[in-house]
Amino acid sequence: MAGILRAAAAAALLLAGSAAAPLALASGPALDAARSGPCVEDPKLMRRAHPDFLKHGRDDTVRKGIRGIRHSLAACVDCHASKADGRVLGTERHFCQGCHTYAAVKVDCFDCHASTARPSTTAAAAPATGGAR
After folding, report:
1. Residue 102: pLDDT over 90
2. Domain residues for 51?
3. Coil, strand or helix: which one is 97?
4. Distance between CA atoms of residues 22 and 100, nearest Å
5. What pLDDT is stored for residue 119 in this prediction?
6. pLDDT band of 101, cuts 50, 70, 90
7. Mean pLDDT over all residues of the chain?
8. Number of structural domains, the chain?
């Protein structure tokens, strides 16, 4: 009987320890800071709807030839690239990779598009160029 109680207590401790790990992530991923200033939309809306914004922007650019759209992938990368290396992919602290890993979602934008910020310091104000860079 005492052996069963010890085993149950050990199992409870193991379960309690494994439950603490997800709690550490409950506040979200730890990311390098983006450039200062407001985002083009409310951050809560962007977390939820950025794929739709990017797909709509892709359609406007590719199918209609509209450049300089409000929700361009290039502008997102320019603002959210790490100040250390200018990238949004590479480690869990990089903006896109960190959020997508946290949400368990594959990042496929950069199969075709650049994951680095444009070299100009005023690039965030420049219109999106679209396409692979």
Report:
1. yes
2. 28-125
3. helix
4. 16
5. 87
6. very high
7. 80
8. 1
Burial category of 119 from C-beta neighbours within 10 Å (exposed 0-12, middle 13-18, buried 19 and up): exposed
Please give the pLDDT value at position 16.
53
Q: Is residue 49 part of a domain?
A: yes
Paired strand residues for 116: 87
Q: Which pairs from 67-72 meet CB under 8 Å and 24+ separation?
A: 67/127, 67/128, 67/129, 67/130, 68/127, 68/128, 69/128, 70/40, 71/40, 71/41, 72/127, 72/128, 72/130
The answer as to whether 2 is a domain residue is no
Amino acid at 4: I
3-state DSSP call for residue 14? Answer: helix
Residue 9 lies in a domain: no
Residue 5 φ/ψ, nearest 5 degrees: -65, -40
Q: Which amino acid is at 60?
A: D
Q: Is 13 a domain residue?
A: no
Decide: residue 37, CB within 10 A, 0-12 exposed, 13-18 middle, 19+ buried: exposed
pLDDT tens digits for 8-66? 555 555 555 544 445 445 688 888 877 878 889 999 999 999 999 999 999 999 999 99
